Amino acid sequence: MNKKIYDKPPLSLEDQAVLLLKRGLKGVSKEELVEKLSRINYYRLRGYTYPYQDNSLAGSPFLQNSKWVCIWNDYVFDSKLVNLVTGALGHIEVAIRSQLALEMSLEYGSRWYLDPKLCHNNQCFKENLKELREHWGRSREVFKKHYEEDYDNSYLPPAWMIFETTTFGIVSKIYSNISNNIPAKIRIAEYFGFKKASVKVLVSWLQHLNLVRNICAHYSRLFSRSFIVRPMIPTTKPKKWVSSIPAQDRIYVSICIITHFLDICAPEFDFRRKLRDVMSMARKAQLPSMGFPVNWEEEMLFKEKDR
Hints:
The chain contains 13 helices and no strands. Helix 5 runs antiparallel to helix 8. The mean pLDDT is 95.
């Protein structure tokens, strides 16, 4: 089937603002819209206006009583949530890298990541190593320059060095591909609160958080997103957890996972307080779309007590 070619012409900021107003957007002037659209792409903003429009009709007119203040509040709320989650994931990423490099190096030497016998899947091993090498090659870190100036470059650097130049995604893939019978892999899981039988849960959590991190890295819409990579829910619950997960593909489950990790690797981050401050911007009617139960703050996981 032949598809039509997208041939809509570009619109000036003024024309974009007029279009939104003609579609029934209330509570905002053309001048304010022009100012906002000058720094926020029209199609980026569309992700936030979409729930307030009747998208079944031509032109997607705004629903009656839809107000700009609600749309703008959603945008600011989502931006704050993205910034909070980005900061939290940074702590988790550093801890995962550190534990992986430490435990595996102590057991198998500083260049253990070059040994395919430690892995489940040889093809995954090759792909991960290729990306690891590429990230090292592109790095401009001072410690890389020092290594290349002082040491034989025919040998790749130790794990604790090369892992600092790669991505969270590669780190999580490498951990996932390590054979499950390797004690170091189990010790890493135990550090993060998982028993041997739950290593696969940790792997799924890391894969999910990598997706969340990529969304945040591009400052994409987060608060109302449905995630393709859904984390496993542990059958044996962590010491502090929630009574239920209403939706496994919404940001609430990500927030639960992040809170669990931060209690272990960055308790000083004060994530719970920061989360409450951000969530105070959300309307109660929005909570279900994010997977949040109405009484989420009463859950044991989110109460500010010692673990």
